[in-house]
Amino acid sequence: MNEPAFQRARSAEAKQARERAILDAARTLGRRRGVRDVTLTDIAAEVGMHKSALLRYFETREQIFLELTAEGWRQWSADLRGDLEHTARATPAGVAAVIAGTLAARPMFCDLLAQAPLNLERNVSIESVRSFKLATLHEVGLIGAELRRLLGLTESQAVDTIATATGMAGALWQMATPGPRLRELYTSDPRLGHAVVEVEPRLTRVLTALLTGLGAHSATTS
User: Fold this and answer.
1) Alpha helix (H) ranges present in the chain?
2) Alpha carbon of 214 to those of 4, 51, 101, 128: distances in Å?
3) Does residue 90 register a pLDDT over 80?
4) pTM, entire model
5) How distant is the alpha carbon of residue 200 from its chain centre?
6) Helix (H, G, I), strand (E, B), or coil: what is residue 152?
7) pLDDT of 177-209, one tens digit each?
8) Residue 32 to residues 19, 25, 71, 78, 141: CA-CA distances in angstroms?
9) Mind listing the pLDDT tens digit for each residue in 207-222?
């Protein structure tokens, strides 16, 4: 079998283009198969390069997907804040619905949210983890500011809300996508029907209960 032709990127621009191609390939495969089932060899083949050559750009498959997780945080944060910033007054149920809806619309991001603490942060350098955590922290701060403005939450309450939303989105997505054999089992036995969940409605209910319990209210009403 012929090896794929590959030329090493020489300029900074070529290196960035190669990194973007690798990230795009990993994203495509992750959406198609699920993040857990994508190997470094799979990504290299999708790009059309040697696995050893790919390692010049990323240290491990986990680093590739961790970078995609950080990118997902930035994109979700921007879209969520865009939906929230035009809201002059809000209710716990309304804000919960927006958060849940924007997460459920991003299945790949939900998958990454579940995989990040389980394995993506565990096979990369300390600097990669530091960079990821700082990127996430920045977006949490931006989202938290909107939650405080709309619902009068404290900083810690806002952080808890974001952590609950993203943590549950990752877990619920895994439950909602059990694979063909398990899905057949769950749907064939009425006693197991509860095992397959719908992410958005359940996440909306959980976040509504959380925000209501925190005593959240529209900051414009006080």
Assistant:
1) 12-33, 40-47, 51-54, 61-84, 92-104, 107-115, 126-151, 155-176, 180-188, 199-213
2) 56, 50, 21, 34
3) yes
4) 0.87
5) 15
6) coil
7) 877 787 777 888 888 777 778 899 999 999 999
8) 20, 11, 18, 25, 32
9) 999 999 998 776 654 4
